[in-house]
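Notes on consecutive records. When two proteins share a document, each keeps its own sequence and its own token line. Never mix them. Below: protein one.
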Amino acid sequence: MSGRKKIERNIEADHSGVCFKPCGIRRKELKKVYLLEDEMEALRLADFEGLYQQECADKMGISRTTFSRLIESARKKTADALLHTKALNIKIKE
């Protein structure tokens, strides 16, 4: 069984090539956290644009509950990178 087909998400901003790392530590020495491009878009819409979850979900073409899971995952990964001195990379679908 393969489960449900993943719905294509609308991603307005190009997040390719984005990565952040703590100062003073070589990137190759750091553990890495990967944000998926839809998680990055969720952060952009909710936290930067300041939209409500339903508005964000509508813009991305997904349900509000799916958006809620995305934003929770994105925030947890971001906090992990900031709190535990890890590099944060954006992973683009191929």
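Protein two starts on the next line and is unrelated to protein one.
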Amino acid sequence: MSVTVSIKVRREVVELADKMVRLGLAKSRSHAFNIMIEKGLKEVLKEVGFWENIYREVEELKKQGFVLKHGGLTKLLEEDRSR
């Protein structure tokens, strides 16, 4: 089932969608956006899974009595996300 949503995207993304339609790679802009999302979805799912595991492991460490230096985890997470 499809759901209509309204989003803002960079001009380059719209231009890419239009090229995909012109080249016959997509039936419409909407189809082009869906292709882009689906092709990138695997990577996003991997990254989300990675971070869910990190947070779950941190919670387990806290339950075991480990004390995390204030702000230390946040700094590590932010550094990794910036890569």
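For the record: Residues 29-63 form the longest helix (35 residues).
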